[in-house]
Amino acid sequence: MKILLVYPEYPDTFWSFRHALKFIGKKAAFPPLGLLTVAAMLPKSWEKRLVDMNVQPLSDRDITWADYVFCSAMTVQRESAQSVVERCRRLGVKTVVGGPLCTTSPAEFDAADHLVLGEAEVSLPPFLADLIRGQARHIYAAEHRADVSRTPIPLWELINPRRYAAMNIQYSRGCPFDCEFCDITRLFGRKPRTKTTKQVIGELEALHARGWRGGVFFVDDNFIGDKRKLKNETLPALLDWMEQKRHPFEFYTEASIELADDPHLMELMVRAGFQEVFIGIETPNDAGHSESGKVQNKNRDLIASVKRIQKAGLQVQGGFIVGFDSDPPSIFERQIRFIQESGIVTAMAGMLTALRGTRLHQRLIREGRFLGNTSGNNTAVALNFVPTMRADALISGYRTILTTIYAPRAYYHRIFTFLREYRPLQRGRFYLKSGYCGAFFKSILFLGVIGKERLQFWRLFFWSLLMRPRLLPLAITLAIYGHHFRIITEHIRWNSMFDDGCIE
Ligand code: SF4
After folding, report:
1. Which atom number of ligand 1 is nearest to the Cα of residue 182?
2. Using a 6 Å cutoff on CB, does residue 253 contact ligand 1?
3. How far apart are the C-alpha atoms of 288 and 299, rounded to whole Å?
4. Separation CA 393–CA 401 (nearest Å)
């Protein structure tokens, strides 16, 4: 059996980092971890190839080589995933579709031959058994949650790591919280399920053996969902392994804000090699946390929490949302003030979106306010529900946030705020990695010579060089990210009133 695994293209979004990747000569931020894991679950004797459409085009020859095309997608990849299925149908090659998009919206993939929904560890084996017997049905759904301690190591040999900015691994699935707008608990449950320490080390060993050095993103929904295991087993083992291998990786992940309340956990993470953490801050308005059930963010000084994490040595990336029913007219101004004061440089501000299957989606249907599908693009100027605030006021306020926080002045101001307070762990002698050189010269040209941000760039450059020379590579990296965010902001289509059936 010949299997082609296809990862559809994602559009130019906030998280694609497409305009920043050019500086380091990479094609995509991360490889398709889910498909690589699925590949490892297929029979060893089957021939496998993978085409990630974000790093190479998918040709008709690729498709016709295969007996089956396996495709997995997130919501933001909808358009490309549907066109892959259609192309395969035209070329007479059967398709098997899975992943979060297909799991939450199976009706959109009726044209595919087989749908394998939910966690592949559960739904794939019965499909494969039936396929081998020549009796595969149209739909296979996972009836229970997977035991991730049996998940195999992704088949890394199917990709060329050099095309990616960072690698990714998964330690846990699920989150103990249940925010109304989030689909994680619907997809993966509230009880965090974790891999064994041996598995995690095995996955890192596999990446190391393939020659990877650099960033590794733990794609967990909430990395600190099971703090006890993390502190007692996983992080100490990770720390030992990293020391033995002389710190070949820098780790990034996602976590909830109560990380700030646990100095020991932060210290262990930093010592183990974690440098960045994405946190859903959502709003400075406590009523928004009550409304969405974001209990961990309630009744706390969020700025102080962010600063504690930054001072512990972790850069905080933050998610922000406008469009809650409880948002007052001043929310836009308050969001901007919060983002600037917090020194969260990578601040992803989006409008509230009702994802299918979430509690928010169900509530809005009950209230007759749900309008239709979402594109899955976090920073699209699109509403898929009727907001409490007037839609035009919400959209105009949201535009103000985007244009303010990504404007060179405000953006570089945040970099300064952050770098002044950031205290990363210093390991051994400081040296400049070879990969930084190309990015450094490109940044001089594109940001320092022809960029709109020339003045701010040189101010940051000389300040870092003189005051915090070890942080110069990070300062340049953040300046490059700013270039990407600004292009994304400029590309947002301000004027269209309708998009994908959703009001804008
Ligand atoms: S804390 Fe994050 S992952 Fe967990 S339910 Fe809330 S938004 Fe989702």
Report:
1. 8
2. no
3. 12
4. 12
Q: Let me know: does 447 contact 479? Beta carbons within 8 Å.
A: yes
187 and 227 in contact (C-beta within 8 Å)? Answer: no
Q: Phi and psi of 136, rounded to 5°? A: -70, 135
Q: Which atom of ligand 1 is nearest to the CA of 221?
A: 3
Q: What angle do CA 369, 373, 375 make, to 5 degrees?
A: 130
**Would you mind telling me the total number of residues written for the chain in this entry?**
504
The pTM for the full model equals 0.93
Tens of pLDDT, residues 161-208:
999 999 999 999 999 999 999 999 888 999 999 999 999 999 999 999
Q: What separation in Å is there between the alpha carbon of 298 and the centre of ligand 1?
A: 14
Token duo for residue 72: 């997995």
Residue 85 corresponds to which amino acid? Answer: V
What is the CA(446)–ligand 1 centre distance, in A? Answer: 37
CB 421 within 8 A of CB 307: yes
Q: What is the C-alpha to C-alpha distance for residues 195 and 190, in angstroms, rounded to an integer?
A: 16
C-alpha distance from residue 44 to each of 41, 121, 152 (Å): 8, 16, 12
Q: How far apart are CA 234 and CA 84, in angstroms?
A: 39
Please report where in the chains the tokens 């262990």 appear, as a residue: 268
Domains of the chain and CATH, by start: 2-141 (3.40.50.280), 148-417 (3.80.30.20)
Ligand 1 atom, smallest distance to 296 CA: 1
